[in-house]
Amino acid sequence: MSTTMSLHFLSFLSIACLLFSHSFGNDDGWMDAHATFYGGGDAAGTMGGACGYGNLYSQGYGTTTAALSTALFNNGLSCGACFEIRCVDDPKWCLHGASIVVTATNFCPPNNALPNNAGGWCNPPQRHFDLSQPVFEQIARYSAGIVPVSFRRVPCKKKEGIRFTINGHSYFNLVLITNVGGAGDVHAVSIKGSKTGWQPMSRNWGQNWQSNSLLDGQSLSFKVTASDGKTITCSDVVPAGWAFGQTFTGPQFV
Fold first, then answer.
1. Minimal CA–CA distance to 168: which of 199, 223, 219, 205?
2. What are the percentages of helix, strand and coil residues in the chain, rounded to 5?
């Protein structure tokens, strides 16, 4: 092959690789999905949810939240993860140049009675975000109803530290973990009383973590591991005089 032909062939390969990368969007972490909205104009209908966060305002999440389809929810392990989302490929409905960052706080269940492209938006294997209405309207027009989007995982930026809310009763300590920075989604937790060693907790549902040990009257420490493998130790974050229903704040991922 001549030098000229070789150069032309290499140029063709370079262009082909660029087109392939652009088509699939994997070079910078963006993936394709769709988005709808729920919860009303004040997002009141988004409170609570399958992650267990309860009042999203008091927990610091506000209206920048999303319910995830089965393909994204990961059986609740994605609770707390943050996503950047932008409306794409629909100039009639998309707001040009706009993007949002939302936290996963709920589950969008499948509706197998409807086809995937006509109401069954959250059916597997589709990647879908059901956004709060106020945040949906930051990237698309209300009357669109459903729009194509691109999304990627981004670090969660949180004010203050990780919060631990202790619910349950003796021998059933149910700890809700919220306001997690960094990766955002907690994948493992250990607990230590001032009279015990470290004990792994089991995930009960959402981001509620369970211990069946008797820990009443002890100061409590936690080790929290996020989906990126990073672990933070929150030593004696809960004082010995704690009571069920109280919330305590520890350090934060950096």
1. 205
2. 15, 35, 50
Dihedral through CA 243, CA 246, CA 251, CA 254, nearest 10?
A: 140
Residues facing 67 on adjacent strands = 106, 130
- β strands within the chain, DSSP E: 31-38, 65-68, 82-87, 100-107, 128-132, 147-154, 163-169, 172-178, 186-193, 198-200, 202-205, 208-211, 220-226, 231-238, 247-249
Structure token pair of residue 144:
């669109």
pLDDT one-digit tens code per residue, 1-36:
443 434 343 343 343 333 333 333 445 799 999 999
Amino acid at 36: T
H or E segment and range at residue 40 = none
Residue 147 contacts residue 34 (beta carbons within 8 Å)? yes
Q: What's phi and psi for 93, nearest 5 deg? A: -115, -25
Is-above-0.85 flag for pTM? yes
- Cα separation, 151 vs 116, whole angstroms: 19
Residue 254 pLDDT = 85
Q: Do 182 and 82 touch, CB atoms closer than 8 A?
A: no
Count H helices and E strands in the chain, helices first. Answer: 3, 15
Question: What tens digit of pLDDT does each residue of 205-247 get?
Answer: 999 999 999 999 999 999 999 999 999 999 999 999 999 999 9
